[in-house]
Amino acid sequence: MNTIDLTPLYRSSIGFDRLASMLDNALRSDTSSGGYPPYNIEALGENRYGITIAAAGFEQDELDIQVERGVLTVRGKKANDDEERSYLYQGIAARAFERKFNLAEHVEVTDAEMRNGLLEIRLVKEIPEAMKPRSIEIKNTDKSIEHKGSAA
């Protein structure tokens, strides 16, 4: 297993502890979900993103999307079928799943839609006005020399 020493980062940076835990999680091999369900992450434009999850066989009310502390979690859980089925072959996975996506600062989920067995989640990065670059006016503070008249 590869390890990364983040000590130089910590010497000159403050508040990047979340980044370290994200890197640690990414480097750990996570085989618990086994790649199920498959998904795509795409850039839809500047500051716009999309996640598409193949959720074939799931109804809209069997899916749950939540955002908490910068983590987008998508869960799917099939409702219990009252009807018992006897499969000769079952190639369509209908098992419960949970997918987590770490979101960068200021990335917000704007919309989710279920279409043709694909769950489409749209996100946008909205940088607050206070964090956008702005120009600062430089004032001239040279004092003009005042000439006072002498009273006679």
Automatic annotation (TrEMBL):
The keyword Cytoplasm does not apply. InterPro entries: A-crystallin/Hsp20_dom, ACD_IbpA/B, HSP20-like_chaperone. CDD domains: ACD_IbpA-B_like. Residues 30-141 form the SHSP domain. It comes from the Bacteria. Pfam families: HSP20 (PF00011). Keywords: Stress response. The keyword Cytoplasm does not apply. Belongs to the small heat shock protein (HSP20) family. PANTHER family: PTHR47062, SMALL HEAT SHOCK PROTEIN IBPA (PTHR47062:SF1). This is Heat-shock protein.
